[in-house]
Amino acid sequence: MSVLSILFQDLSARLCSSEFLSNARHPDHPAAFSRCRKLPLPALVAIMLTGMRMSVQSELDTFFAHLAQQAQLMHKVSEQAFAKARAKLSLSAIPLLNDWLITRAERDGFVPRWCDLRLVAADASTVRFGLRASHVKRAALADQILFGLFLPGPDLMLAASLHSAGERGERQFLVEHLDRLPPTDLLLLDRGYPCRWLVALLNHRAIKFCMRVDQSEAGFGCVREFVVSGESERIVMLRAPDKQDALDYECPRKPQRVRLVRHVAPNGEQRVLMTNLFDEKLYPASSFGELYHQR
Predict the structure, then answer these.
(1) I want to staple 149 with a disulfide (CB 3.0 to 4.6 A). Which of 158, 164, 217, 236 is the partner?
(2) Around 120, how many Cα atoms within 13 Å sit in the side-chain half-sphere?
(3) How far is CA 220 from CA 6, 210, 213, 228, in A?
């Protein structure tokens, strides 16, 4: 049996374990999932993990048809029964299951390393949900912002959160997830993230990073100088964060030392990457282009 088959087998066993049952119960429903129902806890979670792109009832009928290994749809559980069971599921159940899966994937070698570092990409995107017509006043709007920490390579989501459109910003969402990053991680960021206080905060928390930075970024005159210099790399000092930013994000108000690396894309476009990986032997400048591309 392959390692991947064993992993899925163990995941199935995890869904049926008493430990997962204990963690999956909503605090308001301590006796949930105790009786033998048409929609037991493992099936409920398995359905939610499929992605559910169709209507709820269609997903349910398709799921139970696959489970019974038959071509025709099987109407075994109603949409109302699914909603009732889902309400008894703890909000932390699936994130905890995801943590277990990532731990197992790392143990079994499915999460590659770059120079002994695990790559973690951060990004956010606006998503639009379909809302049914209802007389009930809704707490959420159709447009939401989904933020995630993603593991390139195994295509696993380390963590994710949903936010109201217009709420704070991507940098703030990232700050709320920094506790998920151990010293053996390398954070990959796009152009929307670089700023002086974030660099100070990442350095203060000993989080390794590589981020793309435009020469037009405010406060980064050193980047503009680097672009016209023609150099392949340079060590520079960023100005200290503003006083209010330092207070808000609990980062030191000190100049920050960073390394700038030039990367020329196949189409001739020049990119500047900013990092706190200074060892030129361990992390040569020529390797950063392919590294950034993985995000």
Answers:
(1) 158
(2) 25
(3) 50, 16, 9, 14
**pTM greater than the 0.90 cutoff:** no
What are 79's two structure tokens?
């949409």
Contact residues for 270 (Cβ-Cβ < 8 A; gap 6+)? 227, 262, 263, 264
Tell the residue number behind the tokens 């143990």, with chain if given: 107
| 220-256 pLDDT tens trace | 888 888 888 889 999 999 999 999 999 999 999 999 9
Residues 45-63 pLDDT 10s: 888 888 888 888 998 888 8
145 in Cβ contact with 125 (< 8 Å): yes
CA distance 35 to 68: 22
Which residues, 6+ apart, have CB-to-CB distance to 278 below 8 Å?
A: 235, 259
Mention every residue, 6+ apart, whose C-beta is less than 8 A from residue 98. 156, 157
